[in-house]
Each structure stands twice: as C-alpha cells, then as structure tokens.
Design a protein that fits this description.
Elements (H helix, E strand, L loop, with lengths): L7 H8 L3 E6 L4 H18 L5 E4 L14 E4 L3 H11 L11 E6 L1 H9 L12 E8 L2 E8 L8 H11 L13 E7 L4 E6 L13 H10 L7 E4 L2
Parallel strand pairs: 8-9
Antiparallel strand pairs: 1-3, 1-4, 2-3, 5-6, 5-7, 7-8
Amino acid sequence: MPQLIRTPEDIFRAERRDVYALQFTQTNERAICRTRDEMQAWFAQHMPGSPTELLAPSEHSGFIMGGPVGLRIAFTDDDLQRFCQRWETPDGQSIDPRFQCYQYPYDRWWAKRGHYVPTLDQPSSLGAALWVETPLGVVSHVLPAEHNHPANVRDIWANACQQWPELQALDLEQLAYGKVVYSTHRKQWLLLWNAPLSEDWSELENPERWRTVADWLRLPADAQMASEF
C-alpha cells in the first residue's frame, strides 16, 4: 500500500508539538537512503521510545515533491537530550556531516496559521475566508477586510474537529471545502473550491449549491467560483 508521508504542518495539527527532523546534506539519492535507513535503525535500537517517520516538505516551502525530504523523530524529552549529547556539538551543529537535526517550532506555526477558531455561525461581514461544507453546516473562519487568509482549510479543520468531535469521523477530502479571496487584478471576490469536486460543483451543473455557500459567506452577487487548483 502507498505510504502516507506527513508534512510538519500535518504533525502540528495532529500532535500539537514541536517537530524535529534530520535533513540530509548528501546530494546522491542512494546515499541519502542509506544514511536514512542507518539512522532509522539506530533510533530503533537506542531510542525505541522515540519513533521515526519520513517527513514531507512543508506546505509553505514552495516546492512540490513526491517523496520525503527528511526523517522525523518524535523525541521524548530525555531522548532529545541524549541525541544532542551524542550527535551534536555544544552549539548545535551535527558531528556527522551527512545530516543536521532541525526543529520546526509549533508555537511559531500556531501564532501565524494555527490559532484561528472556526464557527458554524454565519459570518457577520465579508472578508477572506476558509470554509468547509459539513453535515453540521458550513464551518468557516473569516478575516474581515482582508484579501487572502494566511491559514489553509486543514488548519481550521483540525480545530473544528476538536470543537465538534462528531466531525472526526469525516474525511475532509470527501467534503466540499475551499476559500474566499479577493482578486485585485479582477477587482472581484472569488469562491474557490477543492478540485476533486470539479463536476459536482460546476456553476452550470449545480448553481444553487455554490450560491448557497456564497450567500452564507456574504459574497456579493458578482462573485465568481473557480477551482483552487
């Protein structure tokens, strides 16, 4: 079966903690795989309480890649200290030139993108928005007077699942979701939706459904709908 490779943001949303990962400095892919396998075996033997997993690029890296870029280690506090003593100099540099351990701070992500609390209430005003159509209603978060929301739908979805536990059984990818942005080029508000719903959400095929969501989010009558991808 295909292996699920999480991003740092996936882990932030699921585990609410800092992410530590080895980034490999070698340029040859086979050499990287050998080093990664070697380190996975080392952690399994010496730190079995700190499991590892392959790590995908950050959602905000600007890169589209199909494979892992690092090895994430879910350190216990004690194992983190032991790792630093074994593999790093006092200033945090790796003693092995093949890799360097990096920290992705949870608090930094939370302050910038993770803290937005969604609501099932209709927004009081128009603005940049993230939205999900659920059996409970439209879950959304709106930033009035903004043109683009800094978070993404998965960020508010994780918070929504904490607020309404019944949503945890749902697969976000099977729901209609998207964002609202203002195009300064077109001078127009756009309702963007996820690509898998391209047929179901065609404006020509199902105008009432998308207009209902647009009205709920208080979009003007001349707002247009488009795929996010």
